[in-house]
Amino acid sequence: MTTQPLEWTPPSTAKTYVIQPLRLEQIDRYLTSRQPFLPKGAIVQADAYEQACHNFLKTLLGDKTSLSSEECKTAQAILSNPMELTLAAWMLAGGIQPDLFNLREQQYKLMADEYQTIQKHDFPLKKFSEAVYQRWLTDEKSLPANDFHNELLCMEDEKYRMVVRRQWQDAKGEVQKEWFFRHDKIAEFFIVQTFLGESKEAKKRLKQHINDSRFRGVYFLLATLLPLDAAQQLREDLIQNAADTNDHTVSDNFVRLLRSR
């Protein structure tokens, strides 16, 4: 059982448990255990898949890693998340080297490339992202299937698994369908696109949602995606806001992520 980070002073008599990141051998064991659940037509399978997992972790977290101690710590935390590990496993099975610090973008680009091949035009990232943002504002988690049916079908593909479909029969016996993001992290990748750029609306949103818990993950992405000057300015805004509200859940993580750049 886990929870999102939050500012809370526990009672003096409370016993606190701190969840530790997985050890390297545990990460390796989880990756190799995903093999029965990977696409049947995966390029890398059986012993070759297991070796790919070993090599990936050895290169990333082994004795001769090129990462700094701070980056290794962050990488280990990312690889302690079953969702990220499962995505990394899918990429390794597909013969793709996971980019651990940009997994969502890497997943999107692979999907968008196939979409372009099938539909003969680019994935409408800007339009789709704005639609997701507007729905997030009203806590509507289902996706606009009428406007983006082909896009959702591609995102639902077994190779990408960015969305899931739910079906049921209504009172008339007619089949109804809804699509949802598989995880909020995927939604945040699209939402953050509406915070980037030089438009007045994008700049307004940077400050507009600082105290909105629904956008916490979006701000963590902004720490790595914004141009450095803009990210440093946002850091100052977050620090000042934390001083006023005494809530450091976003500002502290943002500072650590920005520092790693």
Describe the structure.
By secondary structure, this protein is mainly α. It folds into 3 domains: 24-98, no CATH class; 101-194, Arc Repressor Mutant, subunit A; 199-261, no CATH class. 54% of the residues lie in helices and 5% in strands. It contains 12 helices and 2 strands; from the N terminus they run H-H-H-H-H-H-H-E-E-H-H-H-H-H. The chain has helices spanning 24-33, 46-61, 69-78, 82-93, 103-119, 125-137, 149-156, 184-193, 200-208, 216-225, 228-245, 251-259, and strands spanning 163-169, 175-181. A two-stranded antiparallel sheet has the order 1-2. Helix 10 (216-225) runs antiparallel to helix 11 (228-245) and helix 11 runs antiparallel to helix 12. The longest helix is centred in the C-terminal third of the chain and has 18 residues, at 228-245. The radius of gyration is 20 Å and the shape is globular. The relative contact order is 0.08. The mean pLDDT is 89.
Q: State Rg.
A: 20 Å
Spatial sequence of strands, sheet with the most strands:
1-2
The assembly state of the depicted protein chains is single chain
Number of strands: 2
Number of helices: 12
The pLDDT mean sits at: 89
Largest sheet: 2 strands, antiparallel
Instruction: Quote the beta fraction.
Output: 5-15%
CATH classification class of the largest domain: Mainly Alpha
List the uncertain runs.
none
